[in-house]
Structure formats: structure tokens, C-alpha cells
Amino acid sequence: MTIPSVTLNDGNLIPQLGYGVFRVPPADTERAVSEALELGYRHIDTAAIYGNEEGVGAAIAASGIARDELFVTTKLWNDRHDGDEPNKAIAESLEKLGLDFVDLYLVHWPTPAADNYVHAWQKLIELRDAGLTRSIGVSNHLVPHLERIVAETGVVPAVDQIELHPAYQQRDVTTWAAEHDVKIESWGPLGQGKYDLFGAAPVAAAAMDHGKTPAQVVIRWHLQKGYIVFPKSVRRERLAENLDVFDFELTAPQMAAIDAMDPGDGSGRVSAHPDEVN
To answer: Which of 19, 41, 50, 168 is catalytic?
Structure first.
């Protein structure tokens, strides 16, 4: 099985399907990441605030997989935007991960009340230029945040990692991203279990048609939209199931039916609004 890659706007390649360790307990992380790597995952998404970078690093070290076969993402937390803090933060993350560089480093939230996300973005540009990360991007940035960092630095993020699932598709952000060659990474791609996504008629019908689970159908929807996706699980059988999505394709009507699940009024959001995280 080969996981397809997406070419970022800086020329680097990123596996389109990865394993996210958001809310994976630190005590479970090494085992879970090790199992993911055994199953064929090569893209791991973590963050400083998750508290599990050491577990990710231990699993990578134990795997014996060549560094150039892995894609590792971590993120700059909200209280590290000012001054020289981004430099210190990435040094701490690299030490915990046991790596000389990460493949992608993200500004985790814009924290607009602090008004320091442009400074944070400028520091990430410097970190990339210093070779501590190969690519740089943002997470949870809305169009005004994106427009401002590009206007003030001239550097377009490689990715924007945003809450995205069938009930909440952030079309304003995805449209802007497409126009500026910014790849979208979907976090919470299955809605975090906060609504009956799997029981929704378009998802359930497609699952029945293809002999797949509802989760596999939704992951496939993300992939066919061109998004980078990393569903989370700590169960080996679910990790394997989430990877088993490359032997079928949703039809255009099935894609359109899932697209239509977003009411378009923002009511489908299941997590925090980026303007309110500070």
C-alpha cells in the first residue's frame, strides 16, 4: 500500500494520510505511534501542548525507519509567540522528539487578542531558513489572519490545519487556501464524535454502497477533496481501518451529498473559535 503524497508550495512532499496524536495520553503514545508505524503510517502530527512529543520520539527511535521516510509535524503553543520564545520552543520540541529538524512546524493558534501572531510567523520563517524545520505553516488561522501574515512578511504558509469535517467545512478558508496554494489539513476530521456523523444518510448510504465503514467513507471524502487528514485512534484495529481507504472511490453524487451536510452558518463547529482562543 502506498499513501499518496501532496506537494506543498515550497516543493516538499507530505503524505496525505497521517496519524494525529491529539489527546493520546503520554503513557499510550509510544505504543500507539509504534503500531501506526508498523501498519505503514509515515506522517505523525503532534504538538508541544499535547504533552506527548517524547512518546512520538521514542517510537520513531525504536522503529528503525530512516528519517527521510518520515514526516513529523509539531506546533508552537500560544504562550511562546513573543521575543525569542519560538526559537526556545522548537529546541525543546526537537529534544523531546529526538530529531535534528521537523518536517513541518505550525503556529498552533493565532491568539488575536495578544496580537503577536505576525511576530510568531516571522520567527517561523527564520527557523525554516535555519534548517530546524523544512516547511512552515499555521493552524486555526482564518482568512483575516492569513491575509495579514502574508501581507506583512511576503511568505505564504505551506498549510493551514483547521477544524474540518462534513458539518463544518470552512469554505471561506478553503477557498482562500486554494487561491494561494495553501494545502488544507483537516483536524477533527470525523467530528470528534460530537454529532451523529456516521448515522448521517449520505455517509451511511455510501458506506453501504462500498462495503466500508462510515469512518472510512468520511476519510475518503477528505482525501478526494484534496485535504491532508490524520484521524486519531489508540486502537490498532482502528488504525488499520483508517488506513484502508485507497481501494475505493466515492462517486460525484456521493461527494456532493456529503458536501451538502454543512448548513453553511457555522453551526457545525464542534470546537473553539480561533478568535476566542488566546
So the answer is: 50
What average pLDDT does the structure give for the chain?
A: 96
How far is the C-alpha of 103 from the C-alpha of 121, rounded, in Å?
A: 16
**pLDDT at res. 2:** 86
Residue 98 dihedral angles phi and psi, to the nearest 5°: 70, 30
Contact call for residues 43 and 15 (beta carbons, < 8 A): yes
Can you point out the beta strands (E) in the chain? Answer: 5-7, 13-15, 19-20, 43-45, 71-76, 102-107, 133-139, 159-163, 183-187, 228-229
Contact yes or no for 271/139 (Cβ under 8 A): no
The verdict on whether 50 is a catalytic residue reads: yes
Give me the domains of the chain, ranges plus CATH numbers. Answer: 5-267 (3.20.20.100)
With 0-12 CB in 10 A as exposed, 13-18 as middle and 19+ as buried, what is 40? Answer: middle
Per the document, the length of the chain is: 278
The pTM of this model reads 0.96
Query: 8-13, long-range: CB within 8 Å, 24+ apart, which pairs?
Result: 8/135, 8/158, 8/159, 8/183, 9/156, 9/158, 9/181, 9/182, 9/183, 10/134, 10/135, 10/158, 12/103, 12/134, 12/135, 12/158
CA 41 to chain centre: 14
The mean per-residue pLDDT over the stretch 21-41 comes to 93
